[in-house]
Amino acid sequence: MSLHAACRLPFLHPTAYRSLTTSSRCLKGNTRKPRLTASGMGVISEKSKEKRDSARQLLATTNRTKWEDTNRKIAALTGKLPTTNVYLAANFEQRQFLLAEAAECLREAAQPEMFNCLQNPLRAKFTLNMRTKKKTKFLQKFEGHVVLPHLLDFLPKSRVIALCKDADDAALAVEAGAVHAGGTELFTRLENGSVHWEEYDTVVAHTDWEPTLKKLRHVLKDRLPTMRNGRIGSDVLTLVTTHSVGISMESTALEGVPEIAFLDVIIGQLAWDTTRLETNMQAYFDTIQSNKSSRVSGNAVLSVELYCPPTGERFPIDLTPYLPVSGSAEISTADDENLEEEMVLTQNDEFNQALTA
């Protein structure tokens, strides 16, 4: 090799070899080899922790102030109704729309001449009540699963892995829509990371697997099936069908306001007829009510807003058609009906007596 060719070779500093051997690389079992660092590197300083905590505290204080101001404004405007057809909505009590009315208003803005989004998902934002019977205690999160009467076929199905009792159930689970189904072999593959977490969305299991599922906690994390989230049962086929076409619901908290939580769901497409939208909305309400904790004080749902991006309009929905009638209301209604029947009978008796006379 000539001297000129040798001069053109790249020169590697000794530290370059060290960076090649100590760089992080992804191993086969979905585990990452940690990067070798000097002592003290990668440790969060106290100053960084203080900045992060102060920013979080500022966000919580801001959210709390906005929420309290909104509640005071709503209370001040309660009962204040407009007397004309033209008025400023911010100065009067907020109107509650029926779902049919709100959907029709959104369709007007979604026409092809405007936003052209009639096929977009119609979303509902639930504000959930997280208060308990103890004033200082609040629920942390709401979780649930629902199979809507009218399936959301325009959304991709959830990819489900099924841990079955035997080989026959595994074959039936695959036919029902599971991406992977099996027993001990599949459990081992999940445990050592051979099945990548991007290959599935949900894991369901037979009740026989409940004692050993704790070994998968570090791998599955929030996808770990439990009796509480409804992913463990004796009928694996039903679990696969339910979680592949159903909708998983999980609330999000508002920092600084533990009294409420938000739940954002899709009830259908904006172009759907009102009957299908009403049925799906009722299914969401029934699921939330059935999964309501016994510690919750009052109704589980405080308010619902209907919207359809990219339109910026949001319509508050009247909850009366969806909330269950309380026992006291039913009793008072029955008493009113009995009172009306007694009044009718009394009037008929008086009328008959007058005819006889």
From TrEMBL:
InterPro entries: Ribosomal_uL1-like, Ribosomal_uL1/biogenesis, Ribosomal_uL1_3-a/b-sand
GO cellular component labels: ribonucleoprotein complex; ribosome
Pfam families: Ribosomal_L1 (PF00687)
Keyword terms, alphabetized: Ribonucleoprotein, Ribosomal protein
Domain of life: Eukaryota
Family statement drawn from the similarity comment of this UniProt entry: Belongs to the universal ribosomal protein uL1 family.
Protein name: 50S ribosomal protein L1
Organism, scientific name: Opisthorchis felineus
Taxonomic lineage from the root: Eukaryota, Metazoa, Spiralia, Lophotrochozoa, Platyhelminthes
